[in-house]
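User: Now give one protein:

AI:
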Amino acid sequence: MAAPPTPQPPVTVRPFAQRLTATPRAARLARHLAVNQLHAWGVPYGTDPSDAVALIVAELAANAVTHGRVPGRDFELRLSLVAGSVRIEVTDTRADRHPHVLPPAKPLDESGRGLLLVDALADRWEVLDRDPPPGKTVRAEVDLPGWLSLARRAKRA
């Protein structure tokens, strides 16, 4: 008689983490780091998942710099391949300003569309309290077709 299968946690392969200064230059760097890491994991530049992750990271990093900035504190970008998707996490140390989707901006407004983009491009997203406090983490996931082959390739690399 065989034992019942043990539930398995989601597979995470080689998480990537980088702390960055809370500046606009670092927000741009976060986007470049993300697409380079995806490419290293086998998600080519210019594919739909790579482009979606690039835009999500750009928005979340810009929000961390603009709205989540605490003088003298960094923000963190984390990426990981999890079962069927790439997970993006951007953490800042400002606990009092949680992001939320606003009504669509007026056509000529220069801001106010960022989380609408995240909501449209991510398959899932949420805001979590930072552990340890203070702060918050905005987590988004983009589903990856063929993720098992990516996970195997990333483990071998």
